Input
Amino acid sequence: MRLYKVNKDGITQRLRFTTRKSREAGCHNLMKRARLYRAMQFGFKQCRIYASKDCESDSLMEFKRAKEDENITELIQGYSWYPIGEHERGELIRSWQCD
Output
């Protein structure tokens, strides 16, 4: 799992979190809330990203791929996924879960 943010100058930067966590299945919390611009998922069947800690089901976020209209919650591997929301620099996230 790789998560990216966009800084105030429009430059994409990778969110830093423990590499070990990004390779393990299960629910993981970020140390603090972060604004997610893009997510890439590989190595898992599917992943889900949440706006709240502990992967609370009512905070499950929706995503889409560039140039496509279909909204999904389960991120499959091999694509860049963009969160659906109003903020131009991305949406606030707090946890993710991969299976």
